[in-house]
Write a structure and sequence with these properties.
By secondary structure, the protein is of the alpha+beta class. It is 36% helix and 18% strand. The protein folds into six domains: 13-78, Orthogonal Bundle (Helix Hairpins); 101-334, D-amino Acid Aminotransferase, Chain A, domain 1 (2-Layer Sandwich), CATH 3.30.470.30; 338-466, Nucleic acid-binding proteins (OB fold (Dihydrolipoamide Acetyltransferase, E2P), Beta Barrel), CATH 2.40.50; 471-549, DNA polymerase, domain 1, CATH 1.10.150; 556-645, Orthogonal Bundle (DNA polymerase, domain 1), CATH 1.10.150; 651-723, Rossmann fold. It has 25 helices and 24 strands. Strands 2-13-10-3-9 form a five-stranded mixed beta sheet. α24 links the parallel β23 and β24. Bound molecules: 2-(butylsulfanyl)adenosine (IVH). 2-(butylsulfanyl)adenosine binds at residues 97-99, 132, 134-135, 139, 155, 194, 246-247, 308, 327, 330, 332.
Length: 729
Amino acid sequence: MSEPETPSEPIPVAELTAREARAEHKHLAAQVEAADIAYHQNDAPVMDDAAYDALRRRLVAIEEAHPQLKAKASASARVGAKPSARFAKIRHRVPMLSLDNAFTDEAVAEFVQRVHRFLGRKDDEPIAFTAEPKIDGLSLSLRYEQGALVHAATRGDGEEGEDVTVNARTIADSEIPKTLAWDDVPEVAEVRGEVYLGHADFAGINERQREKGLAEFANPRNAAAGSLRQLDASITASRPLRFFAYAWGEMPVLPAPTQSGVVEAFGRWGFRTNPLMARCETVDDLIAQYRLIESRRASLGYDIDGVVYKVDDLSLQARLGFVSRAPRWAIAHKFPAELATTVLEAIEIQVGRTGALSPVARLRPVTVGGVVVTNATLHNEDYIRGFDSKGERIREGEPPDIRVGDTVTVKRAGDVIPRVAAVDLGKRPADAKPYAFPTLCPACSSHATREINPRSGKEDAVRRCTGGLICPAQAVERLKHFVSRDALDIDGLGDKQIEFFHADPDLPVKEPADIFTLAARDAAEPLKKLKAKEGFGAQSVAKLFEAIEDRRKPPLNRFIFGLGIRHIGETNARLLARHYGSFEALRAAGLAAADPASPERQELDAIDGVGPTVVEALTDFFGEPHNQELLDRLLAQVTPQPLEAVASASPVAGKIVVFTGALERMTRDEAKAMAERLGAKVAGSVSSKTDLLVAGPGAGSKLKDAAKHGIEVIDEAGWFDLVGGPTAG
Ligand code: IVH
């Protein structure tokens, strides 16, 4: 055991300059982390408790004097959860999905209506749903083969999770059975559900953390995650983790034809299932179950954050399918946001990727639902002035604006960014001055303007920097977006690293292509090698370069999304990737489509789901010579890969299909979703590019168009013959 490295006569914290504080903080945090790893993971402490406590006390004192240092995932705040890179990855054979949210009873009614419409059911034909608590923990997928637990994986990004099998095996059998010995357990059974901690157990864990001088967990969910994702499984074993089973992945033979039936079978197999799950037939029943669960919330003994509704009949679930990452057959009805009151200390402006100037409230720290909040969004300029997008007053009182010094109500719902929801004008200090929203970009001093929407003729709510490519704030945000999880997903290249490289004089990263030349540039600079720089160990540099290399062939949809073209979110990016197949095809179309009379424009207009705003955004983007040059440089480094032929075996994969007339066995939405699932592109109108027209009774002009272009026409029965029968029902 060696003594911790501390200065022999430490300078009093209050006398440290900001720079000194930063340097010492970094040093201390590294020492604390090393000590934590030695203690928790290697079971081999490198210092005694008193020395460790002294280190932590100084770290905390520095953070209290310089709170900006605390924001950076500091060792003082981190407990348990270890970087995911240390766990092996497991690819989910069936993706682990997320849920769409509803925040109001009306949104629930709309969800039920959407389900009816999609399935072509009349509103008064009942469809059964289940309603059950939404557990606030972390989801886990348990794979059993011949009844034996073989794998446990966290959700990860939904496609690939972390292998926590060893940890899961330490959880009590009453929560996670190690074997399933019932006749109706299929050979392969992936049971999914939520790992969580009860309130009492959470309090006990934090008490022990306190006793050991370790930082406490912020809430039961973090504690559960930290406990499960432990490299040292003996720590997992010491934490009383619990598990509710509510879903499944691969399961070739299901024990029942309904959601409730399968969950019941899970109960028989030895899993705990939630006793508050009910079967409901109307919106009113769903809401009643929601109210019941809400009324029990405080006495449940574990955290829940809403109620999940699911279509009960599994054949209907199969027909409904998914959009993006969420099923059409389920929704989470979230409990209302939590509120707190505090003082607005400053208003800062952040410049986003598209140049939007967003006002951020800096708040006197306040706890909202167990989390300390210091920042919240103030929405936009009009909101601060006290008006909505239609120019109507949104609050009583005179004047109705928000000023620095005001007492405000902060709202936080689940994981979303907290927002300022109200202001108490009665508590306004006498000297508070109206806030002047900047009209120049704080990052590049270009004019910031509010565009006039050509369709509505109204001013846009958002003020935008007009600096475009010269604005450093936009450039940094675009880079962050390019490497973010849903885009290129480059491990080890987060917001902080992007900011570092963007400002670095030796190895600057000013545009996406520069990321891929980093390693070569670093190698060519023997004296200023990256690993010699502050904060980069040789190992982390090697890892970073490896992670970058690994992304030279990004999936086309992620690449398109990563470009950050306005209005091109994940869904549109996937749509375009499917339709055009290659980036070169999209690029050529985007360029040519600037001419409204071009066939490329007509093709773009005809893609189902692509509206005029998207078309305009694409032609604007590809029409900008700077963007073309940037793309040339980027494409010299990376090669986007076409979407995996989703169902290349299907006879309609890659075909352009149009549906017209009445369909009897499926609704139009359902037909479209089915065709897309099989790899076809669905268009709204017939052109020479159409491969197949599926026409039901009452088809009109499209039938004539098809005849004109000599396109194959089949009816609904022909469609099912072609693709192999209806999926259900
Ligand atoms: S169903 C295909 N049921 O919520 C849908 N999820 O926001 C699979 N969750 O990742 C999820 N309680 O971790 C479902 N009763 C419940 C749940 C639940 C909690 C979590 C789950 C999921 C997240 C989605």
